[in-house]
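README: folding subset

This subset contains proteins for which both the sequence and a predicted structure token string are available. Records are stored as plain text. Below is the entry for Fatty acid desaturase (364 residues), shown exactly as it appears on disk.
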Amino acid sequence: MSSTKTRRDYSVVGPEKQRAYERGLVAAEWYTSPVPRQRLKELMKRKDGPAIRDTLIWFGLVIALGVLAYYSWGTWWAIPAFALYGIVYATPSDSRWHECGHGTAFKTPWMNEVVYQIASFMALRSATPKRWSHTRHHTDTIIVGRDPEIVMERPPIWKIIFMQIFHLYGGPREFYKFFLHCFGKLDKEELEYIPTSEYRKVFLEARIYLIIYLSVIALCIQMGSILPAMFIGLPSFYGMVIVLLFGMTQHLGLHEDVLDHRLNSRTIYMNPVLRFLYWNMNYHIEHHMFPMVPYHALAKLHEEIKADCPPASRSFPAALKDVVVALIKQGKDPAYTIDRPLPSTARPYKYGHDTGTMAPERVG
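--- output ---
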């Protein structure tokens, strides 16, 4: 491996875009683990019940913790109360944004759309642009020059990671885009993946977002207190730490520019609380391989394909440790990648055109 700290251009408008085309990595055919057709059809069945239940629990928790935080305001108890409120406000909004964006959380389409719009606002994400950036993320997952949702480049920029603990890098960038959209403009990267037919929706959503935020600011000024913003707006900053950590464990440290989600995605075993917050996105190989399987069926899908996949990380802390170690090593050698052996029951990895279509032999 080269030890030179070569920094690639991770934007979707730079020279890496053409390189991805030349290597046959754009909108390519991805590896999928074998699942019997009838079983996959069962797993893809959508239901309203689980998502309605989970959404009511989530909103109930937000309201209950909001009341607790309100009555703790002005005391030291406000610190843990608002910390909990922020985490329950921001973390599920990220996962609900994600699943409802796929249209799989609910069977009823309008329910997906309503929760998607609410969760997008709470997660501080432009709803329509993020829908299309995420579509690209699934089409060209961790393909440099194509995927606009790569969390961190190589070598890593630690300043950005630490800023993101309080969303101080991504948050201001989102507000910049809101203002841009309000004036009927998109940035260069958004022009790459948002269809022209969606522009009016983008601009309308941004104007609604800013009206809400300006109303909250006006209420703060009227009350002479930041309390209203502590409930709407600021939780998208002070409550984002778990969102960051979840996002880091999805793909970081693994392969770039491959055509096999077993190489570039990570499945993690988590406890029920984290799985509720994350809406089962800890089954990330499964989700990327079969994105139309609803969140509530991902654990069952995991059982179907685990003999064809690398072992899941045993816990969330274990996965985070692997990521941090990999990022430190990539700081010295950007080519460093975690290689995970497959079980003897698995089919070989599919790397892509540079290294051959399939790995030369199964590692077990």
